[in-house]
Each structure stands twice: as structure tokens, then as C-alpha cells.
């Protein structure tokens, strides 16, 4: 693949040259596939993201006469932003952070409710901070408690592991230099400290590579002067949050170091304060506790202080916080290590968990309180300004935040349970009948809840499957009516109806997520109460109860320990495969395509926001090409590419938007983003986008589980945009034009439908001639009619297409039957 320089800026093509800028969706469609030609050249960009043209079209600006009746096609490829090199495999440990960051953007619409919006942001940032502490605390639990304290302090456990021999301590306290408990803990503290440095490094490295792109500076004059009156994605600083990310990165890094320092200090000070302890060491311990608390207050203040500033690029750094806070906490950690390593010949770690190990219980309670507070804020905001189709009536953010906490618990609990089982031999986890005491009791309660949660999920899935089968049978007759004149084939009809019914399940996902989050919250509360009331693992706590309860508790505990360990092993294996196999990495990249669209506003250690690179890329390309050539442009986005296209169009100045037409297909703009992120893609914002571009057309199918209409409810928020539902499959049975069975395309291959070319040509004609067309600023009464085929009213354009038949699942009244 060759690389060529962009067209010379001095070339002045005559008016009429049009550009079609293609943006792919999730999964990383290659530029060769997008352009339909293996011979392509890079016009502008780098190996991470670039714009490509066919080799024959590279000098199109110098040959405008060859493109009077067709556009110049370009492809923007951004897949390497999420599935590039092998380091992306490390992002798997950041999954809970990514989910927590999503919760920040899911708040309900709240125009004018600035105090509530700020409080919502503070609560989500605190949840995100608790996840960082949880991950580092899990590393402390493994390295400090299970290995250095329990196993190295047990002669039976240390004898079976020769690599622990230098730290082993006999029951009488004899051993080498490293055998003293404080020194073992000081040495083991290297593990969580290195993990914390790794998280900082990943965040810093990805910021430099992804999110440091300068936004396109625009003067927005058609909105009120106050930034709050504009759609948020149009603000010049929305895709550039350098100051917030740097400040949060410093705070979370400091929190990680403080967690390690607190674990060391809690163990050593408890020993030093016993009768006969050293007054000097006790005084240093008090100093350490004061420093840890003071730094923790500073961390919380930094996290709560302020959120994003989007009215302009926020590139001024808080140098004192960014530089001094992590450095001070490193100094505190070094002092804690030195304090722990000081000689205490009489100290013996005989049995039990590490002193001061109540972190997990405090974190679980804190996360539950924060999620509950988020729920109250969400309900109040939604009730004050309800937006149709908002997921869970404003409870989307707390539900997703709860799932982030659950993921963090599974990952941290999986590590500790797996290591605990490995060190404990044949003992029961947490029961104290093996080589070591095992992980904290709360983690055993939490792992025991996993089988219960999975059982509830299976019940919900069974209900959905029954509903799916019933809906498929109901749609079978609609499918046959959608293809008049075709010979009925019950098997074919059932297959199409089943695809339509499965695609409609996407609209049921919010309530499933809400139910799982609620069950998780209740099970977490039960685990905390069970731990505090019984101080026993579930199997022991149920002794003496009825046989059914006792047996269920023992089974849940054993199965939960196995499941959480298996989940951890699966995560490690998945990451290892992704590191070595580009195809597996691309599959995992689909997860990042969906989850990392939003900037890191809550958690700085989340995977990087690719849109902070992709949106400026697209905006710069559209703005410079239209300014350089005076031509018109259609930006054509599929799936997630349609979201990037919409965000890039919002990023342009008003004059450039007037030269842009937007074509979206398989688009989740309303179906997913409008419902889950109503404050940013709600009806008001989509209505604004519709009136800012010259034209906008959206294609959708009933068989598509992701894409959908923009004006879903038909309420007139963005009329004239949608064309659909499109016919899928294009032919019911074998025909002269299609002698072989036509495939059911679902979310893919929208270009295979003749209506795609028809709508694109209409947009290009509109740009060239300025004549009214559906989805454009100037509309005729005919253009206001729905644009779908079949039973939907035909547009009075005289064009013949496959729209003579009713789409599958379309009732005779013209309304979607799903």
C-alpha cells in the first residue's frame, strides 16, 4: 500500500466536485473493503488512523471533469485506535474503570440543573476512585496478606514453596533477615506499588498517543453566548479534557500509593501499640497515619473539586496537584516501607489475617451508598425534565456504576480466591482448616453470591427466550405479507421472523441491566451483613440451620470459589491470546469501540477515548477539504461510524456544516445513544443536528439489532430523516435476478441495498443543485412523508425501487410490529 501526499493546497478545482467520506463501524472494516478496491493509498494520517483513497482517485482534484456525475470516495480508518498493537491486551484489567466512566455520561437530561449535574459527576468520580483503591487493595491482599503474612508465616505453607524459604519464619520466630513480618510486608509492597505505576504509565502513554490532539477551533455564533445553551458535543473543549485527566490521574495514582502505605501502617502500628512496643516506632506510626489521612483528604478534594470545562479547550494544568500530590504519597509510602522494615525481633505472624484488613468491607459499603445516591439524583433529574425512552427512568447511570463495582469485585475477588486456593492446599476457603487462613471472609461471601446471580440471570434469559419464540411466531405472517407475489415458504418465514424478533431484544436490554444491577446490590448488602454478623464464611454460618439452607450455602460457597477463580483464569487466557493474536485483539477491540467513545471524565485509568483522536481527525478533514476546494461533502457513517460522523459534524463551524450532508445507516444514534445518553444524544440534540447540516438521511432495518430510526416514536423531533425499515432480505425466495437465496443482512452490507445508492445520490444532487429533498433544510409536503418502502407512503419522486413490498415485521398500517 503506497502513501501519497495530499493534494496541493494551491489547486482550485471548479465548483461541483463532491466528496464521499466513509467512516466504518465496530469490528474494523479495512479501507480496501470500504472502497471496494485493493489498490489504495494513504492521503493523510498515520498508522493509527488515516484517510485513504483508491489509487485512481488520488489526483481527483486535478481531474474534476471525471467526477461530474459521481463523488470522490474516501475512507477514514480508525480501527487501530482500539485494536492495534499487543499492548491493548493490558486494557482488559481496565474493564471496570471503563464501565464506571460510561456511568458519568449516562445522566438524565438536566437543562438548568447545574448543582445536580455537578453532584452527579462528583458521585461517579468517587465510585471510580473506589475502584482504583479496590484493585490496589486486591494486590495488597494477595502480596501482603496471603503470601507475605499468612503463607510465609506458616511453616507448613512455606515448606511446600521453596521460593518463599528466604522469608519463612518458624513458630518460635527464628529465620533469616527477611523473616520478620514487617520486612516481609515491606518487600511484598513492591507488587501493588508496581501495579499502581503500571496503571499510571498506561494512562499517561495513551493520553500522549490518543487524547492530546488539538481540537478544531470554531467560532459558534448561532447559539447563545452561554455554553450551556449549546449541544454539549458542539463545544470546542468537549473532546479535549487534558486538565481533568491529568488531575484525576494524579489523584488516583496517589490513592493507589496511599492504599499500600495504609496496609503497611495498619499492620505495624497495631503491633507497636501493644504493651512493650517501641515508643519511637509508635510515634512514627502516628505520624504515618496523620500523613495518610491528610493525603487521602487531599485526594478526595481533588476528585470532588471540579469536573470538565467544555466551553473551551481546557489545557491549563494544575501543576501543584499533578506534580506534588503523587510525589508526596510516594514519600509517605517510602516512609511506611522503612517503618515496616525496622527490626522487631519479637513480632510473629502466627495465624489469622493481616491486622487492619477491613478495606473490602468499607469499600463495599461506600460503593453501595454512592450508587444509591446516584439513583436518587437520577430519579430527581428525570422527573424534573423527562426525556422519552430514557433507560430505566433515569437510573441508567447508577445501574451501570453498580455493574462496574461488580466487575471490580469479580476481578479482585478472582485474584485473591485463586491465589488463596493455590496456597491453601485442600482447605476450605476462608475456613481456616488448611495451610493458611485464606482471603477475607467478605470476599468469600461475595464469591458465594455469584451462583445466585447467575441463577437469576438464567431465569431472565429463559423468560426472554420464551418471549422471543412467541414473538417470532406472531411475526411469521407479517413476513409473508411483506413479500406479495412470492410463494410462501414457512421455513424461510420463520427464519426471517426469528431474526427480526432477536433484533428487537436490544430494546429490552435496559431492564435486564437494571435487574442485574439491583440483584447485585442486594447480594452485596447481604454479603456485608453476613460477614459482620457471623464473622464466618457462608458454609460455616449456615451450620445448624435446616438441611436445605446448609446444603445450599455449602454448594454456593464451593461453586462460587470455583467460578470466580475460573473467571480470573479466563481473563488471563483471553488477554494472553489477545497479546499474541491480532484477530483475537480485533475481537476484543469491538468492546473498546463501544465503551471508549466517551472521554475519560470519571476514571483516568480507563482505556483511552479514541473519539478524542477520531473526531478532530474527521472535523479537520472536512473543514480543510471544503475550504480548500469549495466543494460539497457527504459523510457516510455505518454503526459506530455514524456516531463519530455526527460528533465531527457538531464540531464544525456553521458555514462548513452547511456544505455537509450526513448519511447514516445501521446507526445507534437514537436506539442506543439517545436512550442511554439522553443528555448528549436526546431528542433536542438530534433535532439540533438535523437543522445544522444541509441534509441528513438515516437507513435502518428491522433485522438490525443495533441500528434503528432516529425519529423512533414518530413524534416529529427529526422528521424526514429516516428511510426505512428497508427490506431484508432483498428477496424472499429465488428469482430471475437472485437465483440463489438472498442472505439476511441484519446490521451489515447496507451498501448492497439499491436504496443506499439512491439516497446517497439524492444527497449529492441536493448538494449540487440545492433542490429540496427529504431530510434537508427546505422541505416540500411530499418530502415530509415517511421514507420507508412497502406499506409506508411512497414519495412522489417517480423512482422505482424494491420499496414496492412491505418489509418483514411491518404491519399493514405502516407501523413497526416490533
From TrEMBL:
SUPFAM superfamilies: alpha/beta-Hydrolases
UniProt entry keywords in alphabetical sequence: Membrane, Transmembrane, Transmembrane helix
Keyword Transmembrane helix applies: yes
Region of interest (Disordered), ranges: 770-818
Cited InterPro entries: AB_hydrolase_fold
Residues annotated as transmembrane: 89-110, 122-144, 185-202, 250-271, 283-304, 324-342, 362-382, 394-415, 448-466, 511-535, 555-575
Annotated protein name in UniProt: Integral membrane protein
Species the sequence originates in: Streptomyces ovatisporus
